[in-house]
């Protein structure tokens, strides 16, 4: 299996960006409720294969967007790197965090020799 193509990643970012844009005035909890199912589905679809680098990029991008949303809500500048820990984003806010890649399972070969 291969990593998700750039086109698929770009489509995911566009979908998430639209949610963040449309819900600027909404509480961050509501925004997270909207983006979590999208992230979960996308990650589950691409989980088997060589996706770990792509997943870490998506994770960083989403985390940055959530921090930006929080900072705008509190009418502050910056990204809030010192203000909110990663653990707080994932544990307290409940941001999706299951970016594990599963190894691809191949069917086992038949041990009995085939005689023709």
Give a description of the structure.
The chain has 116 residues and is mainly alpha-helical. The protein has one domain. The protein contains four helices and no strands. It has helices at 6-22, 28-46, 52-73, 86-92. The radius of gyration is 19 Å and the shape is elongated. The protein starts with 5 loop residues before the first helix and ends in a 24-residue tail after the last helix. The mean pLDDT is 89.
> What's the alpha carbon Rg, rounded to whole Å?
19 Å
Number of discrete helical segments: 4
H/E series: HHHH
Structural class of the helices, strands and pairings? mainly alpha
Please identify the oligomeric state.
single chain
- Tell me about the largest β-sheet: none
Distance between the termini: 33 Å
**Beta-strand percentage range:** under 5%
Q: In the residues, how many domains can be counted?
A: 1
- The global form is elongated
How much helical structure, as a percent, in the residues? 55-70%
């Amino acid at each position: 299996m291969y990593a998700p193509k750039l086109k698929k990643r770009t489509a995911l970012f566009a979908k998430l960006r639209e949610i963040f844009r449309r819900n600027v005035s909404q509480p961050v909890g509501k925004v997270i409720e909207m983006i979590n199912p999208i992230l979960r589905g996308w990650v589950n679809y691409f989980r088997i294969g060589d996706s770990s680098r792509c997943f870490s990029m998506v994770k960083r991008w989403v985390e940055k967007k959530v921090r930006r949303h929080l900072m705008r809500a509190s009418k502050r500048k910056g990204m809030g790197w010192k203000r909110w820990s990663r653990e707080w984003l994932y544990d307290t806010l409940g941001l999706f965090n299951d970016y594990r890649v599963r190894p691809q399972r191949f069917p086992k070969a038949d041990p009995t020799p085939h005689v023709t």
